[in-house]
Amino acid sequence: MLLKAAQQYLPDLLLVQEPHVKDRKIAGISKYLKSWLSKSGKAGLIALPTCSTPVVLSVKENTMDIKITKNSKAFTIISSYSSPYANFREILEELTDLTTNINGEVYLIGGDFNAHNQRWGYRDEGSRGKQLQEFIVEKHIFLLNSSDSPPTFEHNNRQGWPDLTMLSSHSLVKICEWDVLKEETYSDHKFVKICINSNISFLSFARFKTAQGGHCKFVNVLKSKVQALRNLIFNSSNEEEFNKTTRNIQLEIHKTCKQVY
């Protein structure tokens, strides 16, 4: 059913938890697909043909991560699993280690955390849910699940929300679609579709001949714009505003160059 859903939705990657494993490999998938497992075999990733040059960064007991490149941008994808009977600090320490080593690059965490918190749908809050919420706040990351999200787990008359997705970039959250699918999975867990509409625009500028001088005039013209640009920088308080401010600075420098050179 997993590969049938993949044929319908055409993902680049599949994040899996508690897959059927045989000989330390995810069973039931084509041998032509690249796949990886955590040391416990409970968290894994499957790369579809559209996923270009995935690179394994690390493999830990409960987590594993790979780096992919999309539209010339690097993303780290982390798959995680924590048994409801495990010491929850272990997976949090692994995630802390992984995200610290990423060095500021964008990352996505997807996993089955078996942690109760009202923020992502449960009626109660457990110790694990409280610790995970503290981790989210401390890391300044963004949870894609919401308090009114459909359950990702159903068994008989029981429902749960153990499967969570987190992103490190607010700008990506705004262009991300997160849905619990209704397709049959033959499992207690539902498929979750995560789609990042990463159509990234780039600025390109002409080159100017500066060898013939004109630098003093450039400084004098740009000087009149510096205070306004400084105000933009000081008033920027989030990633989106800083990106907009950076674009404005580039455009002002470009306009000044056109005036002078």
UniProtKB/TrEMBL annotation:
A molecular function GO annotation: catalytic activity
InterPro entries (UniProt xref): Endo/exonu/phosph_ase_sf, Endo/exonuclease/phosphatase
Domain of life, source organism: Eukaryota
One Pfam entry name: Exo_endo_phos_2
Coiled coil ranges: none
Residue ranges annotated for the Endonuclease/exonuclease/phosphatase domain, each copy included: 76-192
Name of protein: Endonuclease/exonuclease/phosphatase domain-containing protein
